[in-house]
Design goal:
F-box domain-containing protein
Length: 398
């Protein structure tokens, strides 16, 4: 006897799909499921969209619809009007937000757990803030249209109007939610300065709004790749258009400062606690020295975030007066700066001495202990470094 599953149950199954990809995969392999989907596509797509982003759905839809309608509220009716292209963007944006949430959870909730450990309400606060930052970046970032840009350059009053519009966008949000947004921006800034080599110019150091103006997707790429390559590339493209930093150096801070002043709110410390229901994760003491370094311990998956100039780790690489050979040193420093920190530290652990036999990659180490371990073993790893950068001239070569 063939068991016939009622359409209402099949509809419920489809509405429980976690992503659009899983939904489309299901209806492709089953004619029955496809027939059920065809009878009620809007309600099913709406349910799956909410499964993907939760209560942050209105903000997620606004990111997609704002260019077509600046008065969008992200309503269910607007969700039903999304095109196939917009649904693909919806999925891409949702993956960015989820990836950043995992990174945020790792940095502030629990660095020893995989996946996000945020509560439902914490996740909502974080996702809502990221979608609003995403929308802001899309609306106000330097235009890719060169004609539009030069028109703005010639009419400076137009830029003052843009500042007014930036303030107006943030003013729509209540103060508590703006403080949460500001905390997420501080998290983005920390990622922006944590990975990769030196900033291209001093101005990058002055205000990291310049870097994070490239948007949440570039920030996530920096976190996952442990390099700022895509962030720098996007920024340099924008700066090539502008020729200056004026429109990006205070991209977030200027409108927010105006709002804090208008609302008589003290400038926030941008503390991540604003997003948590309870006190954030209390990390254990360092496994080696016992020092309580809250939020500053490194486990193996966070080695790439160590603030370490690899070049300075090997000051005795060159004998004699090699440090005066500037072309040679520049080539060496450029090569070494590209070395992967995680791979380097893994290789150094592989050559550890007997006195450090109890030190394990899985240990939670403070930066001081990790640097101590590296400096005590750098000479053992030095031959591999030489192989990577090639032989250098001998000390008496000049």
């Amino acid at each position: 006897m063939t068991l016939v599953v009622p359409n209402d149950i099949l509809d419920g199954i489809l509405q429980c799909m976690p992503t659009f990809q899983s939904l489309f995969a299901a209806i492709r392999v089953s004619k029955t499921l496809y027939a059920v989907f065809q009878t009620r596509p809007k309600s099913i797509m709406r349910a799956v969209a909410e499964n993907m982003v939760g209560p942050a759905l209105p903000d997620a839809v606004r990111v997609l619809r704002y260019s077509a309608d600046s008065t969008t509220t992200g309503s269910q009716e607007e969700l039903d009007q999304l095109t196939n292209k917009e649904y693909r963007r919806f999925s891409t944006n949702a993956a960015v937000v989820k990836g950043l949430e995992v990174a945020f959870s790792f940095k502030y909730r629990d660095p020893f757990s995989k996946g996000s450990q945020l509560t439902w309400t914490e996740s909502l606060r974080f996702a809502r803030a990221v979608y609003r930052i995403m929308l802001y970046c899309e609306v106000f970032h330097i235009s890719d249209d060169e004609d539009v840009f030069w028109e703005l350059q010639e009419e400076e009053d137009r830029y003052d109007e843009v500042i007014t519009q930036r303030v107006a966008m943030f003013k729509k949000y209540p103060t508590t939610e703006l403080l949460e947004l500001d905390a997420v921006l501080m998290f983005f800034r920390k990622i922006a300065i944590e990975f990769g080599g030196d900033f291209p110019t001093e101005k990058y150091r002055e205000n990291n709004d310049t870097l994070i103006s490239t948007g949440p997707a570039a920030v996530l790429d920096a976190w996952e790749s442990k390099r700022r390559d895509s962030m720098i590339m996007a920024l340099e493209n924008a700066l090539w258009m502008s020729g200056n930093y004026a429109r990006l150096s205070d991209f977030f801070t200027r409108p927010l400062k105006q709002i804090w002043k208008d609302r008589d709110v003290s400038p926030p410390s941008s503390n991540a606690k604003r997003l948590f229901d309870e006190a954030p994760y209390q990390s254990p003491p360092c496994d080696r020295c016992g020092l309580d370094n809250r939020y500053k311990l490194r486990c193996e998956q966070d080695w790439a975030g160590l603030h370490l100039n690899i070049f300075n780790l090997f000051p005795d690489f060159f004998p004699g007066k090699h440090f005066q050979n500037l072309p040679e040193m520049e080539l060496f420093q450029e090569t070494v700066s590209r070395l992967d920190k995680h791979k380097l530290i893994s290789e150094i652990f592989a050559v550890k001495t007997v006195s450090f036999k109890k030190w394990m990659p899985s240990h939670a180490l403070c930066d001081a202990c990790l640097l101590k371990f590296l400096t005590c073993h750098r000479h053992l790893w030095l031959p591999e470094l030489k192989a990577k950068v090639g032989d250098v001239p001998k000390a008496d070569a000049y």
